[in-house]
Automatic annotation (TrEMBL):
<dbReference type="Pfam" id="PF23571">
    <property type="entry name" value="GH3_M"/>
</dbReference>
<dbReference type="InterPro" id="IPR004993">
    <property type="entry name" value="GH3"/>
</dbReference>
<dbReference type="Pfam" id="PF03321">
    <property type="entry name" value="GH3"/>
</dbReference>
<dbReference type="Pfam" id="PF23572">
    <property type="entry name" value="GH3_C"/>
</dbReference>
<dbReference type="GO" id="GO:0005737">
    <property type="term" value="C:cytoplasm"/>
</dbReference>
<dbReference type="InterPro" id="IPR055377">
    <property type="entry name" value="GH3_M"/>
</dbReference>
<dbReference type="GO" id="GO:0016881">
    <property type="term" value="F:acid-amino acid ligase activity"/>
</dbReference>
<dbReference type="InterPro" id="IPR055378">
    <property type="entry name" value="GH3_C"/>
</dbReference>
<protein>
    <submittedName>
        <fullName>GH3 domain-containing protein</fullName>
    </submittedName>
</protein>
<feature type="domain" description="GH3 middle">
    <location>
        <begin position="214"/>
        <end position="283"/>
    </location>
</feature>
<feature type="domain" description="GH3 C-terminal">
    <location>
        <begin position="310"/>
        <end position="397"/>
    </location>
</feature>
Length: 423
């Protein structure tokens, strides 16, 4: 749970920037927290949310998001649409793309259709909260029949803001994709900065495009290693930070817990009443290094996006990169290399020349990678396309509401993603 101070700061900031955001029943939630009701603001707020808390605690992620979407669609006067992850908002809207006729029928009849992952007793309790609404069902059908660009603003014309729990790393891909299509014209607000399960900061500037977080000194004990690290690194405290510099976070979340390097690198963007304001830069803990080249997740993602820009008509949905050693014999007898699994929209296949563009971008962006490729100590990158919805199914199979790592290091994850490879 969030510290009470953090929840109050969030709600006050939201109300100041978007005056109608705290309207009763004006917020809909799209977030999966299996086995427990979830309230992003830190405590149950039944007067704020139109979404039953039980809907987010279903055993199936897909079922939870569909049920929450149905309750959101009932409320035409929504002011806030909130998701734990940008990927959850994306997947819920993808379910709208494919399942809107069934959702419209459920709205018209005031029912909740049976589906996998929705226990009958829970379905009965949730269905008791519904009532037939033929007018709203007809509006849903009419808007979806027009297409899905800007669909969120058309379905909820009074919506002011989209709140997402995480908006950096690969989650930024989903924010960008939603801004360009379904959520065109709406601002995104990422209110909290969390690391290693601890809340560390709050975003007091919801209308700015790049999230910045005020670090709150009494929520956890934070230390900072200056980047780049020296031979004998010494941590500094909050009062010793310099504006414009980058630091790796060292965290002791609660008294008595272990002190650890969180693997997060932050940039000090300024100060607010003597407390530092930071931007998330990268995760040092998520890096590719088959020969010690150390390419971080964020920098790899930038190279991948640049390569996708060279594939006419393609849009990147999501990706995962695997070091070939994890694949074992199935990666072949070549030198250690990267195996990249990509989900695209707008392009069904790639030529060999197009597939090579990613390896070429990596060589251009990382001289050390180019050197290893020239020597032959790193083999050619291998690119695999996965089917539509593969990463949504992967998130379901993982059984975790946390952001999914894009640099793969666990064999269990590898087995799951391999089952979705189509070419």
């Amino acid at each position: 749970p969030l510290p009470t101070q953090g929840s109050l700061l969030y709600l006050d900031t939201l109300r100041a920037a978007f005056p109608q955001a705290l309207a009763p029943r004006g917020t809909a939630l799209l977030s999966w927290a299996p086995g427990r009701p979830y309230a992003p603001a830190g405590w149950p707020l039944p007067t704020l949310y139109c979404t039953p808390s039980e809907a987010g605690a279903l055993p199936s992620r897909a079922a939870a998001l569909r049920v929450q979407l149905l309750f959101a669609l009932r409320a035409r006067a929504l002011r806030v649409l909130e998701a734990g992850l940008a990927a959850e908002l994306h997947d819920a809207l993808a379910a709208l793309h494919t399942g809107w006729p069934g959702l419209a029928q459920d709205l018209a009849l005031g029912r909740l259709s049976p589906q996998p992952g929705l226990p009958e007793d829970v379905r009965g309790r949730l269905q008791a909260l519904l009532a037939p609404d033929t007018v709203r069902a007809a509006e849903l059908q009419a808007e979806c029949a027009r297409g899905f660009e800007g669909i969120v603003q058309r379905l909820w014309p009074q919506l002011e803001v989209l709140v997402v729990g995480t908006a950096h790393g690969a989650e930024q891909l989903y924010c960008d994709a939603l801004r360009q299509a379904d959520c065109k014209g709406l601002p995104f607000y990422c209110p909290f900065y969390q690391a290693a399960g601890a809340l560390l900061g709050v975003n007091l500037w919801p209308e700015e495009p790049v999230p910045r977080f005020l670090l709150c000194p009494d929520w956890a004990f934070c230390e900072f290693l200056p980047c780049p690290a020296k031979e004998e690194p010494r941590t500094v405290l909050l009062g010793e930070l310099w504006e414009g510099r980058e630091y790796e976070l060292v965290l002791t979340a609660r008294p008595g817990e272990y002190r650890c390097r969180a693997g997060e690198v932050l940039r000090v963007a300024g100060f607010h009443k003597q407390c530092p304001v930071v931007e998330h830069v990268r995760r040092e803990s998520q890096a590719l290094s088959v020969r010690g080249e150390s390419i971080t997740e964020e920098r790899f993602c930038r190279s991948l996006c640049r390569a996708v820009g060279m594939w006419p008509g393609a849009r990147l949905v999501d990706y995962i990169c695997v070091e070939s050693a994890l694949l074992g014999a199935s990666s072949g007898a070549s030198a250690p290399h990267y195996e990249v699994f990509v989900e695209l929209r707008g392009l069904r296949d790639l030529s060999e020349g197009q597939r090579y563009k990613l390896d070429q971008c990596l060589q251009e962006d990382f001289p050390i990678y180019k050197s290893f490729r020239f020597k032959g100590s790193i083999g050619p990158l291998r690119l695999h396309l996965v089917g539509a919805g593969a990463f949504a199914r992967l998130r379901e199979a993982l059984g975790s509401p946390l952001p999914m790592p894009r640099v793969l290091r666990e064999e269990r994850l590898l087995q799951l993603i391999q089952s979705t490879v189509v070419s």
